[in-house]
Write a structure and sequence with these properties.
5 helices; mainly alpha; 76 residues; single chain
């Protein structure tokens, strides 16, 4: 597997984990975005699996709103 494919798979895993965690919290993407101070469209794009949906600082803010560490999104 080449590095770009591995990165794509990790990104897809992170996107699924964000969605599952958000749904487990019982909040909408828009509500999560508001809690994280991130535009709702970016959270929706992340959950849709679009690479580059969030900047690094936004990802950290999103993780804080989800009450998880960023590495939890990417660990196998």
């Amino acid at each position: 597997m080449n590095p770009s494919e591995k990165d794509r798979q990790r990104f897809q895993l992170a996107a699924r984990r964000v969605r599952r965690r958000r749904e487990a919290m019982g909040v909408s993407a828009a509500e999560l975005a508001g809690r994280a101070g991130v535009p709702a469209g970016r959270v929706e794009a992340l959950e849709a699996g679009k690479p580059g949906a969030l900047r690094m600082d936004e990802l950290f803010d999103l993780c804080a709103a989800l009450d998880i560490r960023p590495r939890e999104l990417f660990e196998p």
